[in-house]
């Protein structure tokens, strides 16, 4: 464990997670929970993630459609963390089929139903989609459509989001 400092490795993985690699967001979040007292297994997991990144270094984010469209995909699992009983929220927002925003983290509160867990992540993504749509409009991109894809108990639900009058949202 002395050859590879765990905290430094986690810092590098966090940078990759936040800036370029949405596919490692969840697993880096899991192994970073043991930053204060890592064991050999945690270091092995961190090294495995580094090997995965090296093996997939040619993988890149691509933007590939002519239609400017924001799509938000959500997922949540109820009370996955056995210590705090908090649920995990995950989401990915793409623009023209390229990932632009992603997150995987424990929710801030403990909920007692799967519906509330999903509601929390849907609310977070809806806010992000509205902010991103407004940002794109400020850049001069008009006619950007927003869609949210929600995974609820293995059923995909597609929700078309409409921009409301800004006075209603404030």
From TrEMBL:
| Parts of the chain that traverse the membrane | 139-161
User: Which keywords belong to this entry?
Assistant: Membrane, Transmembrane, Transmembrane helix
Q: Which PANTHER family does the protein's record reference?
A: GAG-POL-RELATED RETROTRANSPOSON, INTEGRASE CATALYTIC DOMAIN-CONTAINING PROTEIN
Q: What is this protein called?
A: Retrovirus-related Pol polyprotein from transposon TNT 1-94
The species this protein belongs to is: Vitis vinifera (Grape)
Q: Which gene encodes it?
A: POLX_1674
